Each structure stands twice: as C-alpha cells, then as structure tokens.
UniProtKB/TrEMBL annotation:
Residues 37-136, 146-245 form the NIPSNAP domain. Belongs to the NipSnap family. It comes from Macaca mulatta. InterPro entries: Dimeric_a/b-barrel (IPR011008), NIPSNAP (IPR012577), NipSnap_domain (IPR051557). The gene is NIPSNAP3B. This is Nipsnap homolog 3B. It comes from the Eukaryota. One of its GO terms (biological process) is mitophagy.
C-alpha cells in the first residue's frame, strides 16, 4: 500500500508540473487580433503574362470590393520567370471565408476575370502569414522596387530565433541601408518560414546598400548571430504593377 501511494503521489506531481514544462516550449509572443495576410503566387504561361495583368487591372475593383489588396507585383529576378506575387489582408478566417463565398457568387468577377485568366495560369501557391509581433506594415516614402527575402528557420518559432532575427533586421534599417515594409511568419504553408518584404528606390540602390552593409561590422555581427538559426534562404526582386497599392 505504501509503494502504491508513493507511485500515485509521483504521478500526480508530474501532472501538476507538466503545464509548466510545456510552457517553456512556447514559440514566442502572439498577436492579439485575428488579422492575417495571404501570400499568393501565380506561375503564368510565358505568352500570357501581359494579358493576365491587363485583365486583372480592368477587373481589380470587383475583387478589392471584398477585401484589401496590400500589393501586387511581377517577379523580375529570383526563381521561375513569368510569375506574379500578391498579398491580401483579412480580419480573420471567417472574413476570408465570407469573401471567397461572395466572389464565387459574383457573376461579373467569375465571367470577366476568373474564367478568362484561369487559362493563363500554370500553377498557384498560397501561404497564410501573420506579422511578427514586433513588426507592423509600413508604407514606403515613394515608388520603388521590392525584395521578398524568405528565411527558412530552425524549428522553435520566434522564442528561439526572434531576438537575434530582430537585431539583424534593425541593423540594416537603423543604419539606413534599406527600408522594411513588413516581417511575416508563416502559419499555413512551409512552417518555420519568415518573409521579409524590403523596399528600395531601385535595384541599383539596393545593390549599393547591400555592398555597404556587408562592410559594416555592426551589421555583420548582427547577421552572424542570426544565421545560427537559419536553415536556408532565397529572395525575389519584385516590380509593383500599375494597380498595386504599394508602389
């Protein structure tokens, strides 16, 4: 009986401690509202790129009547060509579901945009992302070019790599080498992935800033710390379309 009681006491104690142990594995600060951003990438048939964009431009008002378009770009460099990338903002998942239902029932949108443009698309990809808690969506001071840098991080979330990553981002921005539009963390898609949307006046000013930052010991030190949590990275140079809210 004494042995059984001791075993039961240990089991109850372990249950009591379990939530405290698990809490140490939290992935970091969470946002308090449901706002998220959908990243959409369309791979287009080479001969249909212009036709696709012209059609969307003509009918964009039918789509933006239902949810906010953050930005719409064509991909200039990085990966496959004839590709467009766009970001949509939603209040929560219920909002997105309402939007998708409304668009499915919108005869004009279906007939004037979806049906004609589907024939021009080879492949579609989507990711659901949140802004990292210490990031907010910024509007660039004027028209320019954008770079989407994608960082595949080690599992663990912002609790593991967040502080070091923030220091690396701030080192570039605070020293004037570039401007950041937003830092996003993937919720659905390739997990442990961080997207950084940068802005520069031109591709040449981006290259100049990058070369200078590589020679700045403050940036080098911050980046060197952050790469300890990095698995891989890739990027794309984005050119805003004429109808993109972010220019």
């Amino acid at each position: 009986m004494l042995v059984l009681r001791s075993a039961l006491t240990r089991a109850l104690a372990s249950r009591t401690l379990a939530p405290q142990v698990c809490s140490s594995f939290a992935t970091g600060p969470r946002q308090y509202d449901g706002t998220f951003y959908e990243f959409r990438t369309y791979y287009l048939k080479p001969s249909k790129m212009n036709e696709f964009l012209e059609n969307f431009k003509k009918n964009a008002h039918l789509r933006t009547a239902h949810s906010e378009l953050v930005g719409y770009w064509s991909v200039e460099f990085g990966g496959r060509m004839n590709k467009v990338f766009h970001i949509w903002k939603y209040d929560n998942f219920a909002h997105r579901a309402e939007v998708r239902k409304a668009l499915a029932n919108c005869k004009e949108w279906q007939e004037q945009s979806i049906i004609p443009n589907l024939a021009h698309i080879d492949k579609q990809e989507t990711e659901i992302t949140y802004l990292i808690p210490w990031s907010k969506l910024e509007k660039p001071p004027k028209e320019g070019v954008y770079e989407l840098a994608v960082f595949q991080m080690k599992p663990g979330g912002p609790a593991l790599w967040g502080d070091a990553f923030k220091r690396a981002i701030n080192a570039h921005v605070n020293l004037g080498y570039t401007k950041v539009v937003g830092v996003f963390h993937t919720e659905y898609g390739e997990l442990n992935r961080v997207h950084v949307l940068w802005w520069n006046e031109s591709a040449d000013s981006r290259a100049a800033g990058r070369h200078k930052s590589h020679e700045d010991p403050r940036v080098v030190a911050a980046v060197r710390e952050s790469v300890n949590y990095l698995v891989s990275q890739q990027n794309m140079l984005l050119i805003p379309t004429s109808f993109s809210p972010l220019k």
